[in-house]
Design goal:
Length: about 240
């Protein structure tokens, strides 16, 4: 007997993507997790284009409004001129808001209570209801999302270097980081964004969770104390 729409909505809102939200070690529906990764895939894609524009898209342009001969030459005999040049600057408040939202999504999915505040968890839970659930432990996924949260944090620092430098210098009571220039190498956030995009693509399309594999490896090595039922039985060939 099919459920009424009201019962279907109530059950989804109550359970979300959890097998049992009250369980000590929750299990989540991997189908919903993959759907959610697909929804969030737009964020690293957007940030990759933003970072490319920030790193490679802005150059000095000589306007031609003021070119003045200095009547001097360099060591190679080239004539030196004083010129007026401009460079387009971009204000990254929009990108910062997107990154803060992405960080919220990574952190909110880690716990049963905070999952209820995540729009993508809610949407993916509804979309996954028409499919046979595949239950996976939450712990490895939580580890994977921690990796994602660390990537996002690095990008936030890249777009807001002066803010982070102010925090560090205040805590240290000493100027450890400059506040007038970006001290982070430009290639770091660019690489991390594409790595994040690759991880999420593999999760969405292939069902391959890189963070889960890393978690299982660390458990096998004894570096993580908390065991999970799936960690010692992961198929490394999938």
């Amino acid at each position: 007997m099919s459920k009424k729409p009201s019962e279907f909505i109530a059950e989804t809102l109550k359970q979300l993507w959890f097998l049992d939200p009250r369980a000590d070690k929750p299990f989540i529906n991997d189908i919903a997790v993959r759907i959610r990764a697909g929804l969030l895939l737009v964020i690293p894609l957007y940030m990759s284009f933003t970072l490319y524009e920030a790193i490679f898209g802005s150059h000095w342009v000589v306007t031609g409004n003021l070119i003045k001969d200095t009547f001097d030459t360099d060591f190679d005999g080239h004539i030196l001129y004083n010129v007026e040049a401009i460079r387009r600057t971009v204000e990254y408040s929009k990108q910062t808001m997107v990154l803060w939202y992405a960080l919220f999504e990574m952190l909110s999915g880690m716990f049963v209570f905070t999952s209820r505040f995540s729009p993508t968890v809610l949407i993916s839970s509804f979309l996954a209801k028409g499919h046979t659930p595949v239950w996976k432990p939450l712990t490895p996924k939580r580890f994977a999302w921690t990796i994602g949260a660390s990537f996002i944090s690095v990008c936030l620092i890249f777009f807001n270097p002066e803010v982070f430098a102010g925090w560090v210098n205040t805590v240290a009571a000493h100027e450890l980081l400059p506040t007038t220039q970006n001290y982070m190498p430009k290639w770091i956030p660019l690489v991390l964004v594409w790595v994040c995009f690759g991880f999420m693509w593999m999760e969405t399309v292939l069902g391959f969770c890189v963070g889960c594999k890393v978690h299982s490896l660390l458990v096998k090595l004894g570096w993580l104390q908390e065991e999970c039922e799936a960690c010692n039985n992961l198929n490394w060939n999938t």
